[in-house]
Amino acid sequence: MSIPTSDLERGVMSCMLRDTSWPKAYTDASRFLQPKHFEDPNKAKAFELMATLTSAPDEMTLADKAGLDWGEVLDWSKATETPAQVVYYSEGVLKAWSRRQATSISHFLKDGIELGGDPKEVMASASKSISDALSNQGSSYTPVSEGIDDVLQHCFDMDEGKVEFLKSGFPDLDRILGGFKPGEMSVLAGRPSNGKTALALSMAALMAKAGKKVLFSSLEMSKGQLLKRLIHGEARIPIINNSNHYSTGDRQKLREVGEEVKKWPLKIDQASGITVPYISAKALSEKHRWGGLDCLIIDYLGIMDGEGTSTYERISAISRGLQLLAKRLECPVLVLCQQNRESENDKTPQMRHLRDSGSIEQDADQIIMLKRLEDGAFCPVETVDAYIVKNRNGGTGKVALTFSRSYARYDSHASDEKPKRYLT
Q: Tens digit of pLDDT for each residue in 112-145?
């Protein structure tokens, strides 16, 4: 038989009022609870007040300071004999609050659908509410003593080469980046048609071939277009949108590559006009269904929907939301974005060249910016420099890559050697 919420909340108050080692009972309770977790506003007010007390309160003092009826506070103190069960009662109060939140969200979903709301938006809003509820499960403050040993061990393991982060698949790039790290947001930026999507898709392919679980969210290109690029890039056969261009053996090669691509742990979402709550819900759902997630790639930030009275505010809000999503997913999030026109006139890309918002350079843990070596007409095969202009806790530098525009593929080392087949 479950204990009524009112009795659980009385139990928490009683344990604190009977605490002879103040503030032990309050400290234990605050590991789980915040004032908003109490259903009774008077108990919420009393709990908030206790954070300011330097000594254990008696019933009269608490009632006076909180502006409550003394008889009510006295009734609270009678719920327990000792403060020993404060954790038990605190956990019960938190579960009761979570139950109320879940009920409220379920009603919101039901009402939203019955009233004819957009199902995608209704679910996205509900997902945000769920995420907010999960993030408010108790206090996020912990003593530094609880984490030092783990942090040191992690540092020593890294020093000994025992810790590996997600590799991009490009050795020269990984040598500087150190890999993409869980819980971090990385940015890949470039001017339009400079190969952002091609590089991100090449990374996704290399990760998936290595057995990593990758989600690719494309707001600009369809799934069919991306698959065409993947298959032709793997087969190293040019993409041409007209008839009679495949040579002998091309069709068989493409079919063989297609069968291999089918085995990759790579999923593509081609929804347009998505929001941070929408992509959060999709990614969290896929992570649960997949039993894990190694990387989320978003192409691209500038055309996501979001709140704000200006483009700057909208992009800033989206950037911050994606940074928080990376932490929630506990996996790397690679976000594509555009560089402004000013970058075309400078020899070296700078973070200020990121388009529409200075928040991106603040929120990102790593920033890679692309720069074509040859201005003017696009070449079927050309060298593109990847500048690592920001790398939190790591180095920066420049890496030359080969972009085979004919089949939308990047390769690790730029050189004068061209693929056997390319467009003229």
A: 887 887 787 777 777 777 766 666 665 555 677 7
CB 220 within 8 A of CB 299: yes
Type of residue numbered 344: E
In the chain, helix, strand, coil percent, each to 5?
A: 50, 15, 35
pLDDT of residue 417: 44
Question: What pLDDT does residue 46 have?
Answer: 92
| Residue type present at position 6 | S
For Cα atoms 66, 69, 75, give the angle at the middle one, nearest 5 degrees.
Answer: 105
Angle of CA points 127, 131, 108, to nearest 5°: 40
Q: What is the pLDDT of residues 303-353, one digit of tens each?
A: 787 777 788 888 888 888 888 888 888 889 999 998 888 777 777 887 887
Q: Which ranges in 80-221 belong to alpha helices (H)?
A: 86-114, 119-135, 148-159, 171-177, 196-209
SS3 category, 194: coil
Say if CB 423 and CB 240 are below 8 A apart. Answer: yes
Residues 6+ apart with CB under 8 A from 53: 22, 23
185: helix, coil or strand?
Answer: strand
Half-sphere exposure of 157 (CA within 13 A, CB side): 10
Structure tokens at 313: 């505010």
What's the one-letter identity of residue 34? Answer: Q
Closest CA to 236 of 270, 197, 210, 202: 202
Q: φ and ψ at 392, to 5 degrees?
A: -55, 125
- CA trace torsion 245, 251, 254, 258 (10° rounding): 130
In angstroms, the CA 229 to CA 200 distance is 12
What are 99's two structure tokens?
A: 């139950």
Write the pLDDT tens digit of every residue in 39-57.
999 999 999 888 888 777 8
Q: Which amino acid is at 410?
A: Y
For 211: left if phi > 0, alpha if psi spans -120 to 50, otherwise beta; the answer is: left
The pair phi, psi for residue 369, each rounded to 5°, is: -125, 130
Cα distance between residue 42 and residue 48, in whole Å = 10
pLDDT at 377: 67
Chain segment 394-408, per-residue pLDDT in tens: 888 889 898 888 888
Number of neighbours of residue 58 by Cβ within 10 angstroms = 13
Segment 65-76 mean pLDDT:
89
Band of pLDDT at residue 416, cut at 50, 70 and 90? very low
